């Protein structure tokens, strides 16, 4: 027996409901951590309890160590990320928009992209020593290639007929890139930004292993020397929160620059 087809009804979820669901996973981990510490399954010499970590945060913030370390680490990560994003965006536009740039640069950049940035740590120490330049450049290298790949791919996928139409109206190449190509490649640019910002935190961890005398990595090294698992946990959580902050910034940019995508997600069940 045939029935009249009905269109599926999509119920929009409120932001509070979605936020609650996202928070369930971290809250469950926190409860398990607290329970393991309270029952003695997890001893302080292995990992401090949540209460111990909170006390360590108060101690480090009270004596100024945590604030100074955060400032130093964020400065390193921010400068390296800015350099990497600028280089990746520029190279991506050049290789994606011009045939000459693609032929001259892409194969070399793709080869360099396959080299793990962690493998460059000893070489950077030889070239630049153990100062801030080595740390910042390591972060810059790590963040350049995700932005480059995403930008080049987004630029190549731009509608060529639209580009040719704009050129026929007398627009310069620079104006076409600014007014047509980059807006069209925006989803790819934001994807590259997300990967680069995530890698900037990972590269920061590696960079601060280069004999750092300040920063979150330095706090970790000091805590390791004195077997302070509470301070180690604080540093690990700070790195994790920095990664979440980076992802949150990109999500906010997506909502502002591409509101139609957020609206589409809101219609999902």
Structure characterization notes:
The chain has 269 residues and is mostly helical. It is built from 12 helices and no strands. The chain has helices spanning 15-38, 50-62, 65-97, 99-113, 121-128, 132-156, 160-168, 173-184, 186-207, 216-225, 229-257, 259-266. α3 crosses α9 (186-207). The radius of gyration is 24 Å and the shape is flat. The model has no long low-confidence stretch (mean pLDDT 82).
What's the order of the H and E elements?
Answer: HHHHHHHHHHHH
Overall 3D geometry? flat
Q: Give me the Rg, rounded.
A: 24 Å
- Beta-strand fraction estimate: under 5%
What's the helical proportion of residues?
A: over 70%
Characteristics of this structure?
269 residues; 12 helices; flat
Give the SSE map:
Blueprint: H1 15-38, H2 50-62, H3 65-97, H4 99-113, H5 121-128, H6 132-156, H7 160-168, H8 173-184, H9 186-207, H10 216-225, H11 229-257, H12 259-266
In short:
With 269 residues, the chain is an all-alpha fold. It is built from 12 helices and no strands.
